[in-house]
Amino acid sequence: MSRDTSVRWAADPRPLEDVEVDVLIPTRNRAAELAVTLAGLAAQDGPVFRTVVSDQSDGAPAWIQAPVAAVLRVLEAQGTRVELLRHLPRRGLAEHRQFLLEQATGEKTLFLDDDVWLEPGALGRMAHALDELRCGFVGMAPQGFSYLKDRRPEETRSFAAWDGTVAPERVRPAEPAFERWPLHSAANLSHLSVDLGLEPGQWLAYKVAWLGGCTMFRRAALEDVGGFRFWTELPPEHCGEDVVAQWNVMEKYGGAGILPTGAVHLESPTTVTDRRIEAFNVVLGAPGEPGEKESNNHQTKGTDMDNTPDPIRIQKFLGGVDYPATKDSLLAHAKNAGADSDVLNALNHIPETEYDGPTSVSSAVSDG
């Protein structure tokens, strides 16, 4: 499909084509960011896609704002089907994603966060890669362009390209594959694309711990492992629901990241402020005990958590740290980022030394 250009915007609509990709966008209280995200979609030239926006804003939905409404009209004028849904009350991120998945009809499903802009051609590149690799999902990790001059070689040491077939693999905090997670920080992938000498139109698949913000699933694979139906096991305030779904798909069908990434993070403040409960701890088992479900009654009732925060939770408050960094600078950065008392307490107990990257911080927290 080629989108209708301006010469046809006022013409009678063309006959509808079968949808190959459903672009599913959950949103809440982010009209400006959503407008930019939709503008990125308006620059895509296929495959045939449908855009589904589900809004859980505290007030009126984002599409009543003029910038969002304008870009939605552009998408429709280009021949893209648009569906706008209001989904309340809020029951958590996982439930919202499951609701969106149930709206999908296409062979492929792209979960796109409402603060991610896609460069032209990104949608087609992901769809082509998913067809060629025949795995459960592919994705483009969003890059923070404020970090384009911030090279972090210590965070890209775990990079490994897939050589041929993408194989199923298990990822858990205790598994070696988990150590790939720093790859997607800052602008690491943009630097890797330059270092690898990738040319326009060229792409390669690489191994991931997980992908946030822009993940295209083979819909049948995601539904086969249960989608996000685990939402019933979680309290409304949680994070990391995308990690659980991806790990389930990876274990059966495999998954891959795609370089170069054409996804850009808008770097707006998160709307998910309560990150005390990581979904994988509740759904997949306790850290250090892969496969063994933990008792989470104390978590689901919202009482205090006694466990040391897992590495994902800690690093969400350390994004943008200029390494090497001292313990005091890590604490100061985490406080400014709004870290909760559990994270600050964990950092307060690491040794007084200099840390060369996220992995060394995570190791110190675990050892403590």
- CATH homologous superfamily identity of the largest domain: Spore Coat Polysaccharide Biosynthesis Protein SpsA, Chain A
Query: What strand order characterises the main sheet?
Result: 3-2-1-4-9-6-10-8
> What is the CATH topology of the largest domain?
Spore Coat Polysaccharide Biosynthesis Protein SpsA, Chain A
Alpha plus pi helix count: 13
Q: Find the count of extended strands (DSSP E, 2+ residues).
A: 13
Tell me about the largest β-sheet: 8 strands, mixed
CATH class label of the largest domain: Alpha Beta
Please give the share of residues in helix. Answer: 25-40%
What's the number of domains?
2
Q: Uncertain spans, ≥5 residues at pLDDT below 50?
A: 288-306
Gist?
By secondary structure, the protein is of the alpha/beta class.
